[in-house]
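Tip: read the tokens left to right.
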């Protein structure tokens, strides 16, 4: 809830999603390690805390960026459909033979969260570059107007 409120106030959803993803990556790294069970419980909390942000914020982000009602509805439906396909994959990457550590499942999920964080980092850098280019364009226009 804190991440949702802060991302809504600052309008920086990609940054908060990136922070949640890093938390999940650290948690999955802990789960893949040969640490005691108490440390694994801590890793579970890190994964859960990060994934709630990584999954929840984009569900609110996409409809806010979709222009009209029809496109917003279609985009949200597609987002939920693709997201629910992960349930099909999870039955294959978390086989019962791998219990109790589920190394393959955690490794695949870690790589997917890492990929998502890479995409969000590209979005953050792209938005920052776009902001800089708009700011430089405004400065150039002001300079050209005052120099005439």
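Filled-in amino acids:
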């Amino acid at each position: 809830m804190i991440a949702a409120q802060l991302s809504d106030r600052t309008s920086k959803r990609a940054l908060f999603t990136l922070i949640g993803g890093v938390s999940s990556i650290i948690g999955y790294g802990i789960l893949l390690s040969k640490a005691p069970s108490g440390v694994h419980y801590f890793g579970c909390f890190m994964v859960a805390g990060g994934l709630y942000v990584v999954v929840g914020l984009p569900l609110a982000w996409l409809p806010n960026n979709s222009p009209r009602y029809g496109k917003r509805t279609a985009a949200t439906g597609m987002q939920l459909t693709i997201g629910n396909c992960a349930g099909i994959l999870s039955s294959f990457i978390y086989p019962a033979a791998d219990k109790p550590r589920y190394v393959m499942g955690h490794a695949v999920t870690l790589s997917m969260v890492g990929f998502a964080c890479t995409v969000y980092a590209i979005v953050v850098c792209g938005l920052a570059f776009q902001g800089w280019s708009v700011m430089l364009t405004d400065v150039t226009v002001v300079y050209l107007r005052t120099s005439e």
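Residues 2-147 form one domain. The mean pLDDT is 86.
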